[in-house]
Amino acid sequence: MAGKTEAKPKPKSQSKPKAKPRAKAKPKVKQFEYKAEMKQLLHLIVHSLYTHPEVFLRELISNSSDALNKIRFRMLTDTEVVDPDADLKVKIELDSKEQTFSIEDSGIGMSHDDLINKIGTVASSGTLDFLKQVQEHGGAVDGNLIGQFGVGFYSVFMVTDQVTVETRHADKDSKGYRWSSDGQGKFTIEEIEREARGTKITFKLKDDHKDFSEDYRVKSVIQKYSNFVDFPIFVDKEEVNRVSALWHRNKDDVKEEELTEFYKFVSNDFSGPQGHLHLSIEGAVNFKALAFIPETAPPMMFKDQLEKSLQLYSNKVFIQDDCIELLPEYLRFVRGVVDTEDLPLNVSREVTQTSPAMAKIKSILTKRLLSFLEEWAKNEPEKYRKFYQNFGPVFKTGVNSDFGNKDRLVELLRFETTKSEKDELRSLQDYVAGMQDGQDDIYYLSGEHRDALERNPNLEYFKKNEIEVLLLTEPVDVFVVPGLGQYQEKSLKSIDKADLDLKDEKDGDEDAMGKDLSDSLIKVFKETLGDKVEDVIESKRLVDSAATLVVGKDGMDKQMEKMMKAMNKDYAGSKKILEINMSHPLVKNLGKRLIADASDPLLRNSVLQMYEGALLIEGDLTTQTEFIQRMTELMVEATK
Ligand code: ADP
Question: What pLDDT is recorded for position 35?
Fold first, then answer.
C-alpha cells in the first residue's frame, strides 16, 4: 500500500519505546514497555473504536499486501533472499471452535528493529490529539479511520486481548522473532526458529467478535474490502479474491469478457457496459482508472446521480465506495474504479473531500471522459445518440455547473429540431451550418412533447420560412438552454418571446388591412381583454392561426413557468402578450364588422374566444364552461 513507504514521517527518536531488557540469558524473551502515548492510544482503540470491528481484517490484509508488494519489488533486482521461490500469497486460517484467527503472508517480513520501531510506536503525535479530542467530545471513533493514523495493526485489539506476531525478514541472514502483546502496556520479543520468510499474526477472538472465526463472515469482509488485492488470499485453503486488479494490467491484456464481468461486479448491473475508458496517468498525480458507461440509465437516475460514483482504491486496496469527489455531478452515471498511490490508505471522507490529489484526479478524469464522448460523437454517432438518450438529462446540466469545460460540453449537446426526424439528434454546430442567409439567432421552443410542439402556432413562421427550431422537451432544458446565452456569437432565443426580430413576410396580401383599421381593431382587443394580457400586438410569426400568446421581454420561459406552477399552486405566472394575425380571414372579417358597427357584440365575443382559444392551446385555460357557452352562441349565430 502506498502510504506505507519510507516517505512516511515517523518521529522515531521521539516515539521509540524504552527497551527494558530483563535477565540477559534465558529465557530469551525480552520485555518492552510502550511509551506513554502509545499506551493512551491503545486504551482509546480498545475503548472507543468499535463502530467497524471488521476493519481489523482490512488492515491486516493491506499490511500483508504491502509486505508482498515490497518483496516483489525487491526481487526484481535481488533474488538473494530467504525463500526466493515462495508463492506470494496471504493465508488466513480460522478455527471457530477455538475462536482463533491467523493470517500469514510471504512478504518482506520484519526485523527485530522493525518490530520495535514500526509496530511498537505511534506514527504521529497528531493521531493522539485527534483521538483524544473525539473522546472528550463523547463520540465514538469510527474504526474506519484507524488506518489513517498509521496504527492500523493495532485495530486487532478491537477484537482480541492478546496478539502474537511471528516473523522473519527477507534478508538472507535474518532471524525469526515472536512478538507478543496484550495491548495494555507491554510487549515482548523473543527469537524463534522460523524457516519461512514473512509474517504470521495469530490471536484468539473476544467472545463478542467470535464471528470472525467463521468462514462466511471473513469471506464476506474480504469480498467487500480486498477483492482486488493483487495477491491471492486463501481462507482455509480456498482462494477468495478471484477478481484481479484489471486496471493495473496493460490495456491490451484485458479481455472484453473480463471487463464485462468486472463492470457487472462494480455496478450491480445485469447487462454489460456500453463502453469503457482505461486510463493510466502519470505526472502531477498518478492514478489508474477503469470507467464504464452503462448501457441503460438506472430507473432512479436523478437520485442515483447524487449518491453513486466510482470506487476509490489506494494501490489495489479498497478505500471507498461511491467516492463522489472523483466525478462532477453531471458524470456520476459513470461506474468503475480509480486507483491512486497519491493518497494515504484508508483516507477518511474528510480527506477525500479536501485532498488536492483528489481534485486533480477529478479534473483529469473529467477531461478524459469528455474526450471519450467527443470521440463517440464524432466517429460513432449511433453510440453517442444512445448514450445521450440515456444520460443526456444529467449530462447536459454540466454546461451550467462546469464552467471550465463549458465550451466542450456545449459542443456535445444534442437536440431534436424541426429538421430532425423523431429520435434523430442534431448539434448546435449542425444547426449553425444550416442557418438561413441573414438569420442571426438560434431559435428554440420548449414544451412537453414533440407532437405538441410541432403544432404550436408560434412555429408557423419558422416552418414557412424553413428556419430550424430546436425542440426542447426535457424539463432540464429550460435551465440549460437559456443559460447558454450565445453559441458562435449567435443568441439563443425562445420563439415564445414577443421580441423576435422576424422579417415581415406579409408580401402581396392585397386586401391586407390598412394601418388605421388594424390599430382600431387592436384597440378593441385591448379594451375587451383589459388586464388579462400584458399587451396586444400585430403578429409576424403567425401563418395559419389567427392568434397566439407570447412572452414579454422580461417574462419567464413558458415551460419554466409551468414547472413553477406545478411546484406552487398559488403561483399565478406572468401575463402574456396576445399576437394577432392581421392576414387571417377571421381577423379581416372582424375589421369589416368594426367598420360597420363598432358595438357589434359578435366582435367582443370573437375577441374573447380567440384569446381563450390561445390559452387552451397553451394548456392554461381555466374557464372551460364560459369558453364552450360562448362557442355555442357563436355557432348559433353562424348557423342562423
Ligand atoms: P501502517 O500500515 O499505516 O504503517 P500499521 O500499524 O498497520 O501502520 O503497521 C505498521 C508497520 O508495521 C508497517 O508500516 C510495516 O512496516 C509493519 N508491518 C505491519 N504488518 C506487516 C506485515 N504483515 N509484514 C511486514 N511488515 C508489516
Answer: 80
